[in-house]
């Protein structure tokens, strides 16, 4: 009997020493903004490589859904391209959820047109007049005789909220505006439509669309970081309360403070908040 016990103890020691008992699988649910999505995706890829037992899911369904998901317990982290609204905070607190924000990067909402459009800059007033239906043809702005096709993000989007507040001054858009669900969709519509105008996060700019100067200022790392670009804004992650130190939620939400986190944010076309 003693020999059996000793052999059992030796086998158990060997099993533990060789790591045969895998650590428990952990999960992390991230939900929200399509603008912050590329940062969250890249963070998730890095974490999955570093922590093999961690399963991260990133769902890009809009900032409004991110706030709702945190309130309803559908996520560990809400990603949002705007700050939470007062009513969202009040709703959350009334249900025992205490949102804690992390400003992980800076972004600029860029007004974009088709690359063939000769117009290079507009004032805030001109963009507002386009979206209100007061300006309907590019020839009114020094461009070609071409009808303006107006593209906007959907109203649950944080990018829409920023555009509606900072540029539209909360004035109603014309009913013929075409609403799309994400930055990639807005980019695609402008890329393929010569008369289109739309707006996207700076991380989605490329040669297929042309960013316009707004009020004489071009969106760039410098103008967004300094706040001189009129549509500059912070991007957020939110958790329910401050996460336990050392937890995966804490590591993920504070990763933007690391050198690698800053490099990822910059590689995605956004501006790190910790290294201007």
Features:
two-stranded parallel sheet, 2 domains, D-Maltodextrin-Binding Protein, domain 2, 10 helices, 276 residues, ten-stranded mixed beta sheet, alpha/beta, 35% helix
Number of helices: 10
| CATH structural architecture of the largest domain | 3-Layer(aba) Sandwich
Mean pLDDT: 91
User: How would you sum up the major sheet?
Assistant: 10 strands, mixed
Number of domains: 2
Shape: elongated
Strand content: 15-25%
- Specify the CATH homologous superfamily of the largest domain: Periplasmic binding protein-like II
Termini separation: 69 Å
Number of strands: 12
Structural class comes to alpha/beta
Structure, described:
This protein is of the alpha/beta class. The protein folds into two domains: 23-106 and 234-272, D-Maltodextrin-Binding Protein, domain 2 (3-Layer(aba) Sandwich); 107-232, Periplasmic binding protein-like II (D-Maltodextrin-Binding Protein, domain 2, 3-Layer(aba) Sandwich). 35% of the residues lie in helices and 23% in strands. The strands form two sheets. Strands 1, 2, 3, 4, 6, 7, 8, 9, 11 and 12 form a ten-stranded mixed sheet that branches. A two-stranded parallel ribbon has the order 5-10. Strand 1 (26-32), helix 2 and strand 2 (54-60) form a beta-alpha-beta unit. The chain starts with a helix and ends with a strand. Mean pLDDT is 91; it is low at 4-22.
């Amino acid at each position: 009997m003693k020999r059996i016990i000793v052999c059992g103890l030796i086998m158990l020691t060997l099993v533990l020493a060789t790591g045969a008992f895998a650590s428990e699988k952990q999960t992390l649910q991230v939900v929200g903004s399509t603008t912050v999505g590329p940062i969250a995706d890249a963070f998730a890829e890095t974490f999955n490589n570093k922590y093999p037992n961690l399963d991260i899911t990133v769902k890009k369904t809009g900032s409004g859904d991110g706030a709702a998901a945190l309130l309803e317990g559908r996520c560990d982290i809400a990603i949002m391209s705007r700050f939470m609204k007062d009513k969202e905070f009040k709703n959350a607190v009334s249900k025992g959820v205490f949102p804690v924000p992390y400003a992980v990067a800076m972004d600029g909402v860029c007004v974009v047109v088709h690359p063939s459009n000769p117009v290079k800059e507009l004032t805030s007033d001109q963009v507002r007049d386009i979206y209100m239906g007061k300006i309907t043809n590019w020839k009114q702005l020094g461009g070609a005789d071409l009808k303006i096709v107006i593209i906007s993000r959907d109203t649950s989007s944080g990018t829409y909220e920023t555009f509606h507040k900072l540029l539209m001054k909360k004035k109603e858009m014309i009913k013929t505006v075409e609403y799309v669900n994400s930055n990639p969709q807005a980019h695609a519509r402008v890329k393929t439509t010569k008369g289109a105008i739309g707006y996207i996060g700076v991380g989605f700019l490329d040669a297929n669309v042309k960013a316009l100067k707004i009020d004489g200022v071009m969106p760039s790392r410098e103008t967004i970081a300094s706040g001189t670009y009129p549509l500059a804004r912070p991007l957020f992650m939110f958790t329910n309360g401050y996460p336990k130190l050392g937890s995966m939620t804490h590591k993920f939400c504070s990763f933007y403070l690391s050198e690698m986190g800053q490099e990822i944010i910059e590689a995605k076309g956004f501006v790190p908040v910790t290294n201007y």
